[in-house]
Every structure is written in C-alpha cells, then in structure tokens.
Amino acid sequence: MKRIMLRVEYDGTNFEGYQVQLEKRTVQLTIEKALKKMHHEQVRIHSSGRTDSKVHALDQVIHFDTTLDLDEATWKHALTTLLPLDIKVKAAQVVDGYFHARKDAKRKTYRYIVLNRKDHDLFRRNFEWHVPQTLSLEKIKEAAKNIIGTHDFTAFAASKSNVKGGKVRTIYDFKVMSDGERIYFEITGNGFLTHMVRIIVGTLIEIGLGKREISCIQKAFETLDRRVLGLTAPGHGLYLKQVSYE
C-alpha cells in the first residue's frame, strides 16, 4: 500500500464545492470517480480543506492510499486522461504513510480578486467580483491590518459552520494590492473557517464603500456577533492559492 499526494488546481465555476454532495457535481466526487476507474473500487481522497461552490484552487493538496504500483509521472498522466478539463493535476508524489493533507498543513494562503471599475470584464466574470462603486483603498488597507494576529473568528464564520473545537485562528499576513482596476486580497493563516475569507473581504468592501466603520472588526472580535460585519463576498472571486507543510 502506497500513499500518494496530489497537487491539483481547478476552475470552480461548474462545481458545487469540493466536498461530496448527493447528486451534485463536486471536486471530490469527480476525482474519486477517476480513481475508481483505475482501481475498480472506491478510493477515498482527503484534502487540505474544503472549498465552497464556485471557489477556485491554484494549489489544492489531496492524498489517498493505493495498491497500484505506478510511478509519479504515470499517476499524473493517467489522472489527466481521466479528469475533465476544469481539474488539472500539477504534480503527484509518493509520500510517507503518516502524511495527512489536512492535519499536516501549516499555512494556507487565499487570494480574492475584486474588479473595481464601472463595467465588468466579460471574459473574467466567473473569476472576480465586480464592484462598480468607488472604493477607498486607503480605508480597506487600514482595516485589513486589524485582521492580522490571533483572534476568535466566530463572527467571521458562516452560521452553518460545523468546525469542531474553538474558532481561534492566527492570520500571519494580509496583503491588499491594486493595479488600478483590480484589488487583490492575499491572506495567509494557520486555518480558516467556513466563509471566513469571504466575510472578511465582504466587510472590507463595505468599509471601502463607507457603509461600515473600521471599528466593526474589533467589535466583531469582542462580541462574536456576525451581524456587526458586512456581507459574504461571492465565491467566484476566491482562490485557494497555496498550502504549505513547512
């Protein structure tokens, strides 16, 4: 028995998220179907974390156990042949049997893209959130500083979040960059709750619009009340950018 680690990327546009759901097209189910064709039996995969409906991944990590004796290049080629065009295997690697894609992950980085101009970009409409109103980038950057550090992010989690244990997370870095039309949010932490990044971005956009004060972030940490924060940004602007194990 061997344990294989895959690094994959996917366009989340036509997926109802990562995790298997009854009668819905998901990333996990699609990959497991490909592995079943190779093994002629069910093979369960484990990921570094789930992504929501429409969310993309540039570096999702999964692992699975196999009885097949294939080299790494053959794994990549075989799965590329069996998977649809909106999932790509970037690399395959034989790893130690104790490796776990989720439990061993040390850091994750998410990217969120906002298009901030009057008209939308037709060909990128599934890959960025279009916000046509004028935004204060200065206020957004100032507010983002308040997210960095170790906090209880209960207020930043979806009400349906079923994370076991506490909701304290550490954010190591949060960059807000702009090229004049697009705003890029890049946030790195030791873990993220359901909808956490999307709620953070939605809140920062409302701050940039003048609909909320920067102080709402600290109030959310103190009260743990979701209602003091802004909307949940749509999933299609979000990318799982990188998973680190060091």
Throw out a few tags for this protein.
single chain; 246 residues; alpha+beta; Alpha-Beta Plaits; 10-stranded mixed sheet; 10 strands; globular
Would you kindly provide a written description of the structure presented here, covering whatever features stand out?
InterPro entries: PsdUridine_synth_cat_dom_sf, PsdUridine_synth_TruA, PsdUridine_synth_TruA_a/b_dom, PsdUridine_synth_TruA_C, TruA/RsuA/RluB/E/F_N. There is one protein chain. With 246 residues, this protein is of the alpha+beta class. It has 2 domains: 2-95, 2-Layer Sandwich (Alpha-Beta Plaits), CATH 3.30.70; 107-244, Pseudouridine synthase I, catalytic domain, C-terminal subdomain (Alpha-Beta Plaits, 2-Layer Sandwich). Helix content is 22%, strand content 29%. It is built from 5 helices and 10 strands. It has helices at residues 27-39, 72-82, 137-144, 196-208, 215-223; strands at 2-10, 46-47, 56-66, 87-95, 107-115, 129-130, 149-152, 168-178, 182-189, 238-244. Strands 1, 2, 3, 4, 5, 6, 7, 8, 9 and 10 form a 10-stranded mixed sheet that branches. A hairpin with a 3-residue loop joins β8 (168-178) and β9. α3 (137-144) packs across α4 (196-208). The two termini are 25 Å apart. 33% of the residues are buried.
